[in-house]
Amino acid sequence: MLTPCLKTEPHAVFKRALGNFSWVVMLWTLVAVNQVHAQIDPERRRLLQTGYNQPLEGRGPIAAYGFYYYNEPNFARTNLTLRAAIAPVYMDAELGFSHLLGPNTDFAIGLAGGGFAKSYFEIRQGSYLREESFTGHGADLSASVYHKFNPNQLVPLYAILRGTVDQSFYQKDDRTAANFVLPSDLTAANVRTGLRLGGREPSMTAPLAMENLDQLGVPLRVQPIATPAQIARREAQLKATELENHQKLWRWLIAATLVILIAETWVAARLSRKAPVAA
Question: pLDDT tens digits, residue range 202-253?
Fold first, then answer.
């Protein structure tokens, strides 16, 4: 049996439970769809991530996730960057405008939302209470400003200012208790700001200097400098190859035209033979 506070003070119960479960929400935010960035991502990325969490004792809510992360600099224009994290029923996207507000200040607009994004799971003293859990959907619209304070320094310092308008919709699922009172649909606006001090992220494919490769024992082969005659010969070969490719394309077009003419002639002949019979 549920306690009377579910009927008299549903919002108090919701807020208290939200505090107990905030670490789960934080884990989902960090692992599944990372919505907080300190700068526009300058790298081209195509990432696919899936995961599943299973408690060692007892039962818990479904903790499986999967999403495709897409980041494309120079999207449509050289100063545009499109970032998107796409899950089966959820999407978080941001379109960044580099140097829109100044040489060191970028601007971005974001849109996120989908099904089950605001679902709530009541966990109290390690027990998962499905009768006090419910489904939530939502969407949010954001605008962000990214500013770099020291563009000429080795270790950059970024500032971020983000404003978000969020809309949440709640509904009972098949295990929610009939006498449980849902919180009202919520519209919220918030502003977040912060600083990020750091350089580029580590990369296993970043180019290394020749002395570093030599220290690692990587055999090096220095490419000789080409003479003007060799450069002219190479350019002539490239032009000849390009011309040959164009000739191949025209050959295919001529062949396709001949096939169409032959087919048209054959169809016309067939129709001319059937015409007297039809008359």
Answer: 555 666 676 776 777 777 666 677 788 888 888 888 888 877 776 666 667 6
Gap between the Cα atoms of 274 and 279, Å rounded: 9
Q: For 66-98, how does the pLDDT look when each residue is reduced to its tens digit (9 = 90+)?
A: 999 999 998 888 899 999 999 988 999 999 999
Residue 259's identity, in one-letter code, is V
Which residues are CB-neighbours of 123 under 8 A, at least 6 positions away?
17, 20, 21, 24, 60, 129
**Structure token digits, residue 156:** 């950059």
Q: Which residues of 30-69 are buried (b: 16+ CB within 10 A; e: fewer)?
A: eebbebebbbbbeeeeeeeeeeeeeeeeeeebeeebebeb
Enter the pTM of the model: 0.60
Tokens 């600099």 appear where? 73
